Amino acid sequence: MTQKIKITWKAFGDKPQIGRFISSVEIETQFPETITHKEICEIIYAHTNTYQGYTWNLIQPKLSETRTHTSLSIGDEVEIDGITYVVADFGFEKKDEAEIEYHGDIVFSVTKRKEVSV
Fold first, then answer.
1. 3-class secondary structure for the chain?
2. 114: CB partners within 8 A, 6+ apart
3. Taking a C-beta distance cutoff of 8 angstroms, is the pair 23, 8 a contact?
4. Cα(36)–Cα(51) distance, integer angstroms
5. Taking CA atoms, which of 12, 38, 106, 118 is between 20 and 30 Å from 20?
6. pLDDT band at residue 77 under the 50/70/90 scheme
7. Spatial distance between the Cα atoms of 32 and 110, rounded to a whole number of angstroms
């Protein structure tokens, strides 16, 4: 099954005047059906941080020449078939289930939103 994946680097805000900006890359790839979305996110995380691997080979040619970094950081996003995951303090969280804390325009922390019982 083919997955449509969009990787968005946004953890460091969108202020190009201080070297921070948002950019994204879209790829299509095939992972076995037995691999979960979070496992795909972990593979992409590893490949963008080590600058090698199957997904890196798909991502690298599509990167902007002005990219200041390509490793994923807390707050960056990986969208798989329309479901967005955010790089969290530990692992990945679905964006609609994540608690995102900012320090100015920079993502400081991402954790799973706590359920509030009534």
1. CEEEEEEEECCCCCCHHHCCCCEEEEEEEECCCCCCHHHHHHHHHHHHHHCCCHHHHHHHHHCCCCCCCCCCCCCCEEEECCEEEEECCCCEEEHHHEEEEEECCEEEEEEECCCCCC
2. 99
3. yes
4. 22
5. 38
6. very high
7. 28
- Rounded CA gap, 35 and 40, in Å? 7
- Euclidean distance between CA atoms 110 and 98, whole angstroms: 6
- Domain ranges across the chain: 2-112
Q: Indicate the residue type of 32.
A: P
Residue 70 structure tokens: 């390509």
> Is residue 52 scored above 90 in pLDDT?
yes
pTM above 0.90, yes or no: no
Residue 18 pLDDT > 80: no
Give pLDDT, residue 11: 60
